[in-house]
Design goal:
This protein has helices at 2-20, 76-80, 91-94; strands at residues 29-32, 45-47, 52-57, 64-69, 97-106, 112-120, 124-134, 142-151, 158-161. By secondary structure, it is an alpha+beta fold.
Length: 173
């Protein structure tokens, strides 16, 4: 009799605990919040990200850089490295639009990197990246080429990555 009462009590506890607990789904990756820097002025403008893409480059050292591209000729080196998607951006495209290219090295090839936002002030454009890390990753370093479409007329801005995995390198336009 005591065993039966104990069994009913256990089942009751399990059922009441299950009914009150909300189901949780554990993601197999860790979302990292982008670090957004701002000088606090009201003149900061965050642009919406238009179409974007990515390509994994051959790792040859830690790199973090950004460049504002206004001519198809500036893409040739990346296309030769295998980023053939960039070939669709021809002189006709650059007559009205531009591209922002980011090269970013991360600690694991499993980490997915994207351009989260671009914040502009009067003098600079700050590219903020988002990174998505799996719960378990690989130990291979990876360098990603990221790009997004942008409007023309922003060549005068000083472009930089606000939250690089490694120190940013200034690039020559």
């Amino acid at each position: 009799m005591k065993k039966r009462a104990l069994a009913f009590a256990c089942v009751g506890c399990l059922l009441s605990g299950c009914a009150s607990a909300s189901p949780t789904v554990e993601k197999p990756w860790k979302e990292e919040e982008p670090d957004i820097e701002s000088d606090g002025s009201e003149e900061d403008v965050e642009t919406s990200i238009m179409e974007q893409g990515s390509f994994r480059l051959t790792y040859d050292g830690n790199r973090s850089s950004v460049v504002y591209v206004t001519k198809a000729k500036q893409l040739e080196n990346y296309i030769q490295q295998g980023a053939e998607e960039l070939a669709r951006y021809d002189d006709a495209y650059f007559a009205e639009k531009a591209l922002v290219l980011v090269v970013e090295t991360v600690k694991s090839g499993s980490v997915k990197v994207q351009i989260a936002s671009i914040t502009m002030t009067e003098t600079e454009a700050l590219v903020t990246l988002s990174r998505r890390s799996p719960q378990y990753g690989t130990n291979d370093m990876a360098t990603w080429l990221l790009w997004c479409e942008e409007e023309q007329g922003l060549s005068q801005l000083d472009w930089s990555v606000t939250n690089p995995a490694y120190d940013s390198q200034k690039t020559v336009r």
